[in-house]
Amino acid sequence: MFTAQQEVCYVRSHVSSHRNRGKSPDSLQQAIRNGVARAGQTLRNLEWFEVTEIRGQITDGAVAQFQVGLKVGFRLDDVS
Protein backbone atom coordinates (compact mmCIF):
# COMPACT_ATOMS: atom_id res chain seq x y z
CA MET A 1 0.00 0.00 0.00
CA PHE A 2 1.34 3.43 -0.97
CA THR A 3 1.04 6.58 1.09
CA ALA A 4 -0.40 9.59 -0.76
CA GLN A 5 3.08 11.09 -1.20
CA GLN A 6 4.55 7.80 -2.50
CA GLU A 7 1.69 7.41 -4.95
CA VAL A 8 2.24 10.92 -6.35
CA CYS A 9 5.95 10.14 -6.83
CA TYR A 10 5.07 6.81 -8.47
CA VAL A 11 2.67 8.47 -10.89
CA ARG A 12 5.09 11.27 -11.74
CA SER A 13 7.88 8.80 -12.47
CA HIS A 14 5.69 7.06 -15.07
CA VAL A 15 4.25 10.10 -16.88
CA SER A 16 6.05 12.39 -19.28
CA SER A 17 5.15 15.11 -21.74
CA HIS A 18 6.03 16.16 -25.26
CA ARG A 19 5.58 19.47 -27.08
CA ASN A 20 3.82 19.40 -30.41
CA ARG A 21 2.01 21.65 -32.90
CA GLY A 22 -1.29 21.32 -34.71
CA LYS A 23 -2.75 23.29 -37.58
CA SER A 24 -5.98 23.46 -39.54
CA PRO A 25 -7.60 25.79 -42.07
CA ASP A 26 -10.98 25.12 -40.41
CA SER A 27 -10.87 25.75 -36.64
CA LEU A 28 -8.89 25.77 -33.41
CA GLN A 29 -10.64 22.56 -32.34
CA GLN A 30 -9.53 20.81 -35.53
CA ALA A 31 -5.99 22.14 -35.09
CA ILE A 32 -5.96 20.56 -31.60
CA ARG A 33 -7.32 17.27 -32.94
CA ASN A 34 -4.70 17.27 -35.71
CA GLY A 35 -1.89 17.93 -33.21
CA VAL A 36 -3.04 15.14 -30.88
CA ALA A 37 -3.40 12.74 -33.82
CA ARG A 38 0.09 13.63 -35.00
CA ALA A 39 1.52 12.97 -31.52
CA GLY A 40 -0.35 9.65 -31.46
CA GLN A 41 1.55 8.49 -34.55
CA THR A 42 4.82 8.28 -32.60
CA LEU A 43 3.80 8.22 -28.91
CA ARG A 44 1.77 5.61 -27.02
CA ASN A 45 -0.47 5.90 -23.97
CA LEU A 46 -1.56 9.52 -24.56
CA GLU A 47 -3.54 10.77 -21.56
CA TRP A 48 -3.93 14.57 -21.70
CA PHE A 49 -3.11 17.74 -23.62
CA GLU A 50 -2.65 21.41 -22.80
CA VAL A 51 -2.88 24.22 -25.35
CA THR A 52 0.19 26.37 -24.71
CA GLU A 53 -0.05 28.74 -27.67
CA ILE A 54 -2.63 29.92 -30.18
CA ARG A 55 -1.52 31.52 -33.43
CA GLY A 56 -2.72 31.79 -36.97
CA GLN A 57 -1.99 32.90 -40.48
CA ILE A 58 -3.82 35.64 -42.36
CA THR A 59 -4.01 35.68 -46.15
CA ASP A 60 -5.73 38.47 -48.10
CA GLY A 61 -7.26 39.86 -44.90
CA ALA A 62 -8.89 36.58 -43.81
CA VAL A 63 -7.88 33.77 -41.47
CA ALA A 64 -6.12 31.16 -43.59
CA GLN A 65 -4.90 28.78 -40.88
CA PHE A 66 -5.29 28.15 -37.15
CA GLN A 67 -2.18 26.96 -35.30
CA VAL A 68 -1.81 25.65 -31.74
CA GLY A 69 1.15 24.71 -29.60
CA LEU A 70 0.39 21.64 -27.51
CA LYS A 71 1.89 19.89 -24.55
CA VAL A 72 0.81 16.24 -24.69
CA GLY A 73 1.11 13.95 -21.66
CA PHE A 74 1.65 10.23 -21.92
CA ARG A 75 2.27 7.28 -19.62
CA LEU A 76 5.62 5.53 -19.98
CA ASP A 77 5.68 1.77 -20.53
CA ASP A 78 6.78 -0.36 -17.58
CA VAL A 79 10.16 -1.95 -18.33
CA SER A 80 10.48 -4.14 -15.25
| Mean pLDDT across all amino acids | 83
If you consult CATH, what is the topology? Dodecin subunit-like
Q: What's the CATH C level? A: Alpha Beta
Tell me the β content. Answer: over 45%
Structural class: alpha+beta
User: Fraction of residues in helices?
Assistant: 25-40%
Distance between the termini: 19 Å
- Any low-confidence stretches, pLDDT <50, length ≥5? 1-13
Biggest sheet strand line-up? 1-3-2
Q: List the helices and strands in order.
A: HEHEE
Total helices: the number is: 2
Shape: elongated
How many structural units, i.e. domains?
A: 1
* Number of strand elements: 3
Outline:
By secondary structure, the chain is an alpha+beta fold. About 30% of the residues lie in helices and about 50% in strands. The protein is built from 2 helices and 3 strands.
What would you say this structure looks like, in words?
It is elongated, with a radius of gyration of 17 Å. The protein has a three-stranded antiparallel beta sheet with strand order 1-3-2. It has helices spanning 4-13, 28-42; strands at residues 15-24, 46-59, 62-75. Mean pLDDT is 83; it is low at 1-13. 31% of the residues lie in helices and 48% in strands. It has a single domain (16-75), classed as 2-Layer Sandwich (Dodecin subunit-like), CATH 3.30.1660.10. A hairpin with a 2-residue loop joins strand 2 and strand 3. The protein is an alpha+beta fold and 80 residues long.
